[in-house]
C-alpha cells in the first residue's frame, strides 16, 4: 500500500502532517486513549507527536503497514488515527487499529474510517484483517461489529499493561469476502437500555454496581447457590461488572442489574447465559439482596427477561436449576411459567469434595405464561 488519500462518505484518510502535531498530542494524551493503547509514550507530548509524524508513521509504511490521519472531509482537521500493522504477506493478513480524538467521539468516526481502510486493504489484496480490543473496551467492540468484524476469541496475556503486567486482548476478524457490516448480534441491546414493568427495572451491569453486587454474592445463602460454593473476590466481581457490556456484545451473556423501578437502587442481579446458541437455548440465574426479598421482584425480573429472550433475541428454550431445598427459587420459576423437568443427580460440585443435585426447570417459547 502507498500513502494515498482515501475519501469516504464521512471521513478522509490522509497522511499525517506537521500541522497535526498539536491535535495529535492533545488526543493521545487523553486518559481514555492512553488507557486502551498501552504502547503510547507516557507522558505524550508535542515532541512525541512530532516523532510519530516524522518517523513513526513513515516507518509503518516502510515495513508494509499503513498509518493514516483520520480527518474531517470539510475542514481537514485531525479527528484520529488509523493504520495497519503486523503485516504477514504470505498469509495476506494484517492488523487494523485506530484511535479517535475526544472532540470527534460519538460521531461514527472510527466505524467510517475502519470500513474505508478495510475496503482499501482488501482491494489491494489483503485477505484477512484482525482487530484486537482490550476486554473492557466495549466502544471499540461496537466499532468492530459495525464494520463487519466477527469475534474469534481471546488472546491470553497478549499485551503489556501500562505500569506492569499483561492483559488479554479479544480478537475480531473480517475476511475479504465478508460484508462491510454491521455484523449480526446474538444478543441485541435492551430497548432504551432497559426492561421495566414499572416495579422492576433491568439494565446492563456497569462498574458502578461492583460494591452492591459484591455484597450480594458474598451472602452465605447466595454463595450456597453458586456453581462452586466459594465466595467470589471483590476483584472477580469488579471484572464481571467491567466486562458485562463486552460479554453482551460477543453474545455470551446478558448480565443485568435488577433495580427497584421507583428508586433506581440495585435490589439484586439476574443473568441469561447463552450456553447453547446453536440450539437456541440459554440459562437463567437470579438472586436478591435480603431487603428486596418477599416482594415478588425476582418473579417480575424473570418474566421481563424471558419475554425479551423469546422476543427480540429469538430463543426457543430457557432453563434454570435450583438446589432441591431452594423452595423459594422454585416458586419464582413456577410463577414465571417454568415447568419442573426433573432432578439432575450430582449436577454441581458441592462442599467437601461431594457433588450436589439440582432441580431442572425449563420454559419453551410457545409455553403459556
From TrEMBL:
Kindly list the GO CC terms recorded for this protein.
cytoplasm
What keywords would UniProt list here?
Transferase
* A Pfam family assignment: Acetyltransf_3
The reply to whether Transferase figures as a keyword in the UniProt entry is yes
Q: Which residues form a coiled coil?
A: none
Q: Where are the bilayer-spanning segments?
A: none
What Gene Ontology molecular-function terms does this entry list? Answer: protein N-terminal-serine acetyltransferase activity; protein-N-terminal-alanine acetyltransferase activity
InterPro entries from the xrefs? Answer: Acyl_CoA_acyltransferase, GNAT_dom, Ribosomal_N-acetyltransferase
Q: Keyword Lipid biosynthesis: yes or no? A: no
Domain N-acetyltransferase: residue ranges: 11-176, 200-366
Could you tell me which CDD domains the record lists for this protein? NAT_SF
Q: What is this protein called?
A: RimJ/RimL family protein N-acetyltransferase
